[in-house]
Amino acid sequence: MRGPGIDEGGDVEHAEVALRSVLAVLRSSELTDRSARIKAEQVAVDALIALDERRPVRNDGLEPAVEAFERLRSELRTLTRYGSLAIDFVQPPANGRAVPTAIAESARSCVRVALLAQMDEQSATRARVQWDCDGTNLLVDVHDNGHGTASREDDRFRPIAQRVEQLHGDWTVEATPGWGGHLHLRFPLDGADPAAAQDSIGAELTDRQNQIRTLIAQGRTNREIADELAISTNTVKYHVSAMMRVVAVRRRAQLVAGTGDGARP
């Protein structure tokens, strides 16, 4: 059993990357059957060890930007080497600011989600992942040469929206049909402490509303929340609307973060 603070969504993404890496190795035309089996076993064992060694995400830790980026590239190395999607990595400058661990892990998670979605869609053959820092923000860009039909409303971006907005950042999607897409994420490095903001907001909500808000933060749909709490979907919608009025936001992800166009300072 893992300790408190482990990112369960991140665990799922790590497991999916590992599985796809194993399949990519087994399907590779560059390896003999025996070499592919040996390599696949190695990838699987390494993934299990890495998953078991994952530590709780600490909001007070810092990672050098280059080191944080290298962790992502290392995880995806096998998938890049043998998978159908070629991934180019452009690392941040060596003299850039250190990144809070919670932000670094969220940035890595967003990149994993974006790349895995591209692999599912099977329209792109190449992607470029770039991290940078403008002094006050971690900037993450993911370009692809897919169909170029993505939009912010796509369900695949929901986990990304939740990650970014919980950390008081913002994100955009630009797509040109036939030319590919561009996902841009901005994580402020000097933003308010998300945990403190959530505690302040949570004090203004009822116990039931806080239960629903916690499930929203986990990415649950209204139906899933209703089933979990044994209430109707209409009751869930009622509480969500009431919470949005209290917190003064317009979107579910902003409700979790406690920020938005109409949020109180």
In terms of topology, how is this protein built?
Blueprint (H helix, E strand, L loop, with lengths): L7 H20 L5 H20 L9 E2 L1 H18 L3 E5 L8 E2 H21 L4 E8 L3 E8 L13 H9 L3 E7 L3 E9 L5 H9 L4 H11 L4 H8 L3 H15 L4 H6 L8
Parallel strand pairs: 2-4
Antiparallel strand pairs: 1-3, 4-5, 5-7, 6-7
Helix pairs in contact: 1-2, 1-3, 1-4, 3-4, 4-5, 7-9, 8-9
Question: What's this model, at a glance?
Answer:
This protein has 265 residues and is of the alpha+beta class. It has helices at 8-27, 33-52, 65-82, 101-121, 158-166, 194-202, 207-217, 222-229, 233-247, 252-257; strands at 62-63, 86-90, 99-100, 126-133, 137-144, 170-176, 180-188.
Detailed description of the structure:
The protein has 265 residues and is α+β, with helices and mostly antiparallel strands. The protein has 2 domains: 8-188, Heat Shock Protein 90 (2-Layer Sandwich); 194-257, Arc Repressor Mutant, subunit A. It is 52% helix and 15% strand. It has helices at 8-27, 33-52, 65-82, 101-121, 158-166, 194-202, 207-217, 222-229, 233-247, 252-257, and strands spanning 62-63, 86-90, 99-100, 126-133, 137-144, 170-176, 180-188. Strands 2-4-5-7-6 form a 5-stranded mixed sheet, covered by helices on one side. Strand 6 (170-176) and strand 7 (180-188) form a beta hairpin. The protein is globular, with a radius of gyration of 20 Å. Residues 1-9, 192-197 and 260-265 have low confidence and may be disordered.
